[in-house]
Specification:
Keywords: Phosphoprotein. It comes from Undibacterium amnicola. The protein is an alpha/beta fold. It has two domains: 155 residues, Response regulator (Rossmann fold); 101 residues, Beta Barrel (OB fold (Dihydrolipoamide Acetyltransferase, E2P)), CATH 2.40.50.1020. It contains eight helices and 15 strands. A five-stranded parallel sheet has the order 2-1-3-4-5, sandwiched between helices. It has a five-stranded antiparallel sheet with strand order 10-9-8-12-11, with no helix packed on it. A three-stranded antiparallel sheet has the order 13-14-15, with no helix packed on it.
């Protein structure tokens, strides 16, 4: 039998790398022939390389997984990789689709791989014989099924928002991926934004306004027009000799000022 091929589609490079690594452990015979960071690139790569399986993230810039799925499902088995809960996932429990919840559970991935091996055999082993048996009807039936599943997904997507979990920062000629859980605060620095962790600081081009819209408001608070702070990193709130509220952060000697417009966040002071 020819090698089974797959493509991983996710806008987060660490997630692609993590999934590739786990698949190599669980299913070493599976050949990952491509990766893509959004639906547009995924469609282009699929047209060139024809992967039999596509692991497809839902939330991506450009063209998201939902928008790309209708085209990709015509020639490949889709496995959605999603952060949705079990209620939303019921949409996948049928037909030619499967799902993986983020963060990916190894046992669940093993189950998915077992199902995929069988599905690939069923879908591709007798492909030549099946092509002659009412291909138009099959195509229409599959398209209807995909459309129904995607409609359910879009309804769920409208009700939920997936927040930014990684920040990309250039360090010399390399790209550093910083988990938002590592970040103490963001601070505006003229044309750039400073990203501070316990170990180091980085500069990125994304503005504080963009970050505020993309970060979970329960995890990051705007305390000043020039600063966003991770709430769980706050060690203490004090007042200086001028009566200003100042934040002390875990693992950081720098104090951050809370502007008058944001003092209500610390009303007990």
């Amino acid at each position: 039998m020819n090698k089974i091929t797959a493509m991983i589609v996710d806008d987060e490079a660490p997630m692609r790398s993590h999934l590739r690594s786990k698949l190599k452990q669980i299913w070493p015979e599976l050949e990952i022939i491509a990766e893509a960071q959004n639906g547009i690139v995924a469609i282009e790569e699929a047209e060139k390389l024809h992967p039999q399986i596509i692991f497809l993230d839902i939330r991506m810039p450009g063209k998201n997984g939902i928008e790309a799925a209708a085209q990709l499902a015509e020639n490949a088995i889709l496995i959605f990789v999603t952060a949705y809960d079990e209620y939303a996932i019921q949409a996948f429990e049928r037909g030619a689709m499967d799902y993986l919840l983020k963060p990916i559970d190894v046992e669940r991935l093993e189950q998915t791989c077992l199902r995929l091996k069988q599905r690939v055999l069923e879908k591709f082993a007798d492909k030549k014989n099946n092509e002659e048996e009412k291909p138009v009807a099959k195509s229409n039936n599959q398209s209807q099924q995909v459309e129904q599943l995607l409609t359910q997904l879009m309804l769920q997507q409208a009700q939920q928002k997936e927040y930014l979990r990684w920040i990309q920062a250039s360090v010399g000629s390399s790209l550093r991926m910083i988990s938002t859980k590592e970040i103490l605060f963001f601070k505006s620095d003229e044309k750039y934004t400073l990203v501070q962790t316990e170990q180091a600081e980085f500069l990125i081009r994304k503005t504080l306004k963009e970050l505020e819209d993309e970060l979970d408001p329960k995890e990051f608070w705007r305390i000043h027009r020039s600063a966003l702070v991770r709430v769980s990193a706050i060690a203490e709130v004090t007042r200086d000799f001028r009566g200003r509220q100042m934040l002390g952060l875990k693992g950081c000697s720098e104090k951050l000022e809370v502007s008058r417009n944001h003092t209500h966040l610390f009303q007990q002071m």
